[in-house]
Amino acid sequence: MTNAASSSTSFVSYDAECPFPIQNLPYGVFSTTANPSPRPGVAIGDLILDLDALSRSSHFASSPIPADVFQHANLDKLAAREPAEWAAFRSYLTTLLSSNSPLKDAADKDTLFVPRTASSTQMHMPVRIGDYTDFYASFEHAYNAGVLIRGKENAMQPNWRHLPVGYHGRASSVVVSGTPIRRPVGQILDKVGDTQPIWAPCRRLDYELEIGFIYGGAATKLGERLTPTEAREHIFGLVLMNDWSARDIQTWEYVPLGPFLSKNFGTTISPWIVQPAALDPFKTAKYVQEPAVLPYLQDDEGFGFDVPLTLAVRPENAKEYSRIATSNMKHSYWTYAQMIAHHSSTGAPINPSDMMGSGTLSGPGVDGNPNDDALGSLLERSRLGRQPFELNADRKDMTWLRDGDSIKIEGVVKTKDGYSIGFGECEGTVLPAVLPAA
Amino acid sequence: MTNAASSSTSFVSYDAECPFPIQNLPYGVFSTTANPSPRPGVAIGDLILDLDALSRSSHFASSPIPADVFQHANLDKLAAREPAEWAAFRSYLTTLLSSNSPLKDAADKDTLFVPRTASSTQMHMPVRIGDYTDFYASFEHAYNAGVLIRGKENAMQPNWRHLPVGYHGRASSVVVSGTPIRRPVGQILDKVGDTQPIWAPCRRLDYELEIGFIYGGAATKLGERLTPTEAREHIFGLVLMNDWSARDIQTWEYVPLGPFLSKNFGTTISPWIVQPAALDPFKTAKYVQEPAVLPYLQDDEGFGFDVPLTLAVRPENAKEYSRIATSNMKHSYWTYAQMIAHHSSTGAPINPSDMMGSGTLSGPGVDGNPNDDALGSLLERSRLGRQPFELNADRKDMTWLRDGDSIKIEGVVKTKDGYSIGFGECEGTVLPAVLPAA
């Protein structure tokens, strides 16, 4: 199917740079000024195919999934269907949107599409996340952070190569791209060596360039484990993710139970859920895992995706974004399937629409030093704030995020067949902290 | 209102030991063999008043809350109402169930009550928890654990007295009392000093005696903070909680991001949500907090509840439970209101039906040593497994939990007015680990 699909063309026109050709077909939830009810859609070119409207039309007759799945304010019902149904629906959509589809000349065609980028179109959270977990799966990020905090000799913790280190996050503060992020106020130490904290706006506000992946299909029951092979089938889709982090709050609070408020004030995801099938052409070898992992984590068929990810900052009042980093989805030591399998291994149920994050994805170093252009966090890029760097001509001393900074993560890859597959944008702007009135 | 209510009597009869008199009125979700749909109810004596059935009867005419709130599979809709409505509904129920209520002789009375303890009655999760957070709020527990891990000099971490340390947990594995808990299989170190983990059934399975509290009322918005005074109004109710813990998995996995799989394989709560109003007569002074906390955490009106909590173990095939610990709700350094206020302080939304846990509640030591009868975990009771203790005549070498052990937490308090207020039971039995077929 991959080959057939890769040569498909659609009656919807778009150019070779467009991240949403017929080979992509990501799902999202949108509303319009004319119809403010959030509803599922699929992106193609500069349009959104309204799946709610489609499900009420004659064109839905050959759908392998019932209409009520799409007559819902988010994609939860679709995420809960069986993976085989996702594949069948993807095939149905590909046929429906292809160049020779009857839909091309249907009388009701215009009622089924809305403009994707118009100001009259608004994107919403694609699923209602039940539980959200963040991993720490990039070797390079863990190594870079370890060197900065503990030095080269002790950079990697003893457990890191044996299991995908992760922690539970807060689902309630996962927000869709475009949602402003308020600089948090929290307990920090004013000066090194202080023992009495102050309560103040975060001074070390950071981003983390990540991939989020959304579980789907049947829930696992209490006590049920998945193998990596089983787990892989449950990946409903992937999104770009910015795990905003307050480093100074983190440093003070995280002993001994891990990050808490420093990581839960906002996590931004891109609105379009890209199906793994769309990324098939970009499969690449997974990391060599040394020492060998325990049997329950072995994932011989595992792979990565070779998809470049970029992160750029636009200071308030600046016209342009300045790129800080170019990383890649492939910079994950652990496969998504291994992360899910590990997560299930003690038996906590995983439910459809649960989301997991990869952790910051940073690229390999050069000659034993970090590659400054491939670092997914400011913690790494500014060496814990000790090495200001030049963002652009107007900001030659960048360390941490400033109020008004907009962060944009993008992920797009071109094929030799002449099309592009992308995630769209994951964007958020830092609002100034609010302190109580004196 | 408290005084009037404390002298109330009901037409439902129960004795002075019954934890569910008319002064309590906890909410739960139940089903019966005759009607297997889970629905809200309120416990009184040995009966459950079926709130779904009540909402469809003439007796509901004077209810201050609409009927559809109770025609639902759980208490989420009630938790989302305003606190003033909870109070009004409590008052309505008190009148409805009082000795001189017309309900006493109503023709349809028998259709509104079901037996609470009959085998035909089953309890379910009372709310659908969105996000679950566990704190570490007992000074004695933190101190005891700190002494065992780091020694007396460094027992308390620098941040502990400045903020309620907490971490995000997994909502999907919070289960109602009576649900068996499978011993987890996970990565552990076989021997001290090993660097290569094995994958094996947990050998250091523990309980944690806690109180869970459920948030209700309006959700906080992204970026919104609550003061402790505001937060207190949002406590919909309290439950007993057992935070099952795998200490060996925890020790290996928790660096640097905190407990993950070691704490997410099962968290048991009691089925009855006790309203704070029912605990009013048991208010007691809160801990003296030294040094003074930062202004956003100041809770001058804060208090604790003086309610004894017991924990007992019944080994497989044993007839009786053997009590291990008698702790108390009051053994929390931080008030629930402070925990919620801290949680909201960086702006992560808190939604109705979200649950937070107090952390293990252990009582004060004696002469600088732990009080063995007041310790809320086996980690403390067995000194990390180094000091086996006598549970009963058949088990003189207790350290960690064994397969088949049932753990029961209870909380009940008697007043001088001659009635008791209790939570009922929080019970769970350890099932043996399951390894994949060879």
Automatic annotation (TrEMBL), chains A, B:
Keywords for the protein's UniProt record, in alphabetical order: Calcium, Hydrolase, Magnesium, Metal-binding, Phenylalanine catabolism, Tyrosine catabolism
A Pfam short name: FAA_hydrolase_N
What GO biological process terms are annotated to this protein in UniProt? Answer: homogentisate catabolic process; L-phenylalanine catabolic process; L-tyrosine catabolic process
Ranges for domain Fumarylacetoacetase-like C-terminal: 133-430
User: What organism is listed for this UniProt entry?
Assistant: Apiotrichum porosum
What is the catalytic activity of this protein? 4-fumarylacetoacetate + H2O = acetoacetate + fumarate + H(+)
Q: In which pathway does it act?
A: Amino-acid degradation; L-phenylalanine degradation; acetoacetate and fumarate from L-phenylalanine: step 6/6
The protein's name is Fumarylacetoacetase
